[in-house]
Amino acid sequence: MHQPEHQSLPASMQQCIDNCTECHETCTRTLAYCLEMGGEHVEPAHLKTLLDCAGACAVSADFMLRGSDLHPQICGTCAAACERCAQSCAQFAGNKKMEACAEICRRCAESCREMAGIKT
Predict the structure, then answer these.
(1) Distances 27 to 72, 92, 112 between C-alpha atoms, Å
(2) Residue 94 DSSP class
(3) Which of 56, 3, 65 is nearest to 27 (CA)?
(4) Backbone dihedral region of 39: left (phi > 0), alpha (psi from -120 to 50 degrees) or beta?
(5) How far is residue 57 from each of residues 2, 6, 94, measured CA to CA in Å?
(6) CATH code for 11-116?
(7) Are 13 and 115 in contact (CB under 8 A)?
(8) Is the pTM of this model over 0.85?
(9) Quick one: 77 exposed, middle or buried, by C-beta within 10 A (0-12, 13-18, 19+)?
């Protein structure tokens, strides 16, 4: 019987990949929502945080999936981007879509900090 050439990922890394994937998707959808909403939702600084977070999450997941030894550094950057995005989205208190984005960003930041070895 042929053994697969790759080993399964540790559970914590798989969870981080899942969180990054969900966060990327959520931030991308939230960006589209913000563009539809207009007004304060399209402030350049806010849109940049959404773009930074979505991009960092995609790259972070890619590095972990391919087993790059650079993933801790990438995950550290991703954690910072996610934290900023969570803070930016949390400013829209009472808006369920924005609160949901802030929540996944916080969850992703936490798992990325773990992958980066950053103590909180």
Answers:
(1) 22, 14, 16
(2) T
(3) 56
(4) left
(5) 33, 23, 25
(6) 1.20.1270.360
(7) yes
(8) yes
(9) middle
Name the DSSP letter for residue 40.
G
CA 109, CA 82: separation in Å to the nearest integer? 5
**Burial (CB count <10 Å: 0-12, 13-18, 19+), residue 5:** exposed
Walk along the chain (120 residues) and give the pLDDT tens digit of each residue. Answer: 434 445 688 999 999 999 999 999 999 999 999 999 999 999 999 999 999 999 999 999 999 999 999 999 999 999 999 999 999 999 999 999 999 999 999 999 999 999 999 886
How is residue 99 written in tokens?
């609160």
List, for residues 15-37, the tens digit of each pLDDT value: 999 999 999 999 999 999 999 99
Exposure string of 51-66, with b = 16+ CB inside 10 Å and e = fewer, is: ebbbebbbbbbebbbe
